[in-house]
Amino acid sequence: MPDPPISRRQLWKETWALAWPMAGANLLMRGGSIVDTAMVGHLGAIPLAGIGIAQIPVFLSAAVERGLGVGGQILVAYHTGANEPDRRLKVARAVLVLSSVVALAVAGLLWFTSPWLCRMMGADDAMLAQSMSYLRVYLLIFLFSGWFSTFTSIFLGAGDPKTPLYVTGVINVIHVGVSYVLIFGRLGFPQMGVAGAAVAIGLSELLGAVALGMIATRRGLWAPGFSGLSWGATRAVWRLGSPTVVERVLVTSMQGFYTRLLTGFGTAAFAAHRIGIEMESISFLPALGFAQAATTTVGQRLGAKDPDGARRAGWVTTQMSCIFMGLLALSFYFFAEQWMRIFTPDPEVIAYGKKFCLVAAAIQIPLAFAMVVSGALRGAGETRWVMTMPLVGGWLLRLPFGYLLGYVWGFGLMGVWWMMMVDWTVRGALLSLKFKYMRFRLADKVNLPPRTAPPEEGRESGE
Q: What percent of the chain has pLDDT over 90?
């Protein structure tokens, strides 16, 4: 029997209970990077630009892990809503093993290709030296980041965002402390510069993964070892997660070419962009938390056979995100210089950054729609449809028209930046239309037989 329909008030309550810890955890996870950027910014514009260029290979590697994590989150949410803990456990085992294998392969590939990627994005010799100093360390410890991300996805799918929030808070304190000591060479340690920031990431996320793994084992969300590993669950995770992997790779590679457009305007302009992205993450990451909440809520409502509640959950989460991001847009507009001075004292970088803040303020509401409705669609299993959006907004609009506006038609840096607004507006509109009129087919994608029929061997995601 399907669960009774959920009321709007209960939806707001449940969604908020999921969204705020997810948003908080995302802010804390990014908080270490924001603090690292602020500390590296005091080493000079070249280290700041170098670590900014290094983020493209970092985002490419993280895209694979997060994509697989989304597949696991969707299935864990569905089986939680359907009250099927055994199948949920098999999914959790499958996603961790799959993500570990893929993490090692991706780190090995990027070890050899990262110098070329950084050069392609416009890094000169000085920038490249800083970028590779960071990346060589990061890729050695990338597996730890993958474990931490995967365990976080398992908890989110199970409807428990508070545990990752608390663990992230603790490891962030460790991250910031280690970063300060190693970047600047305090307490008798050598000054490692940008490489010290990478060491801090690896140490803190290893500790976080161990803590989440122990808690998940005690709560029956995961079990160590390879016994009971399900090929069916692994295929289901890959089927739902691989489109998100492709989506994130498309987004990150598009951002790489976009970065190449920006580096053409000089080191100070790109440093301002890098600071602006870190600043904007204070709104972007809460929006990601709302998107993750939408994925979990929609997946759980569909597991409980409540498609109307799933659709309403998606819209409720979008409304919450728009309110939050609208308030931050006002702060970007009215306090642009104050935001920039947090990260750098360089007057040229600040001048560029104040212009970026105007664009960032205009982007917030379209960004909220695009991100949160994407999360709702992922929760419904529509990861392939979401995968196409970077092609439309990024590759067909942002990149070619950014080049034309910036370099051919004479609008300069602002023309390149304003194409971000066009990109997110188009994505938000198309995604909203899809979610409004779609039919929910997650049960088919999970590949489960009807509840009343005897299970067929090999047909279900939990076998």
A: 8
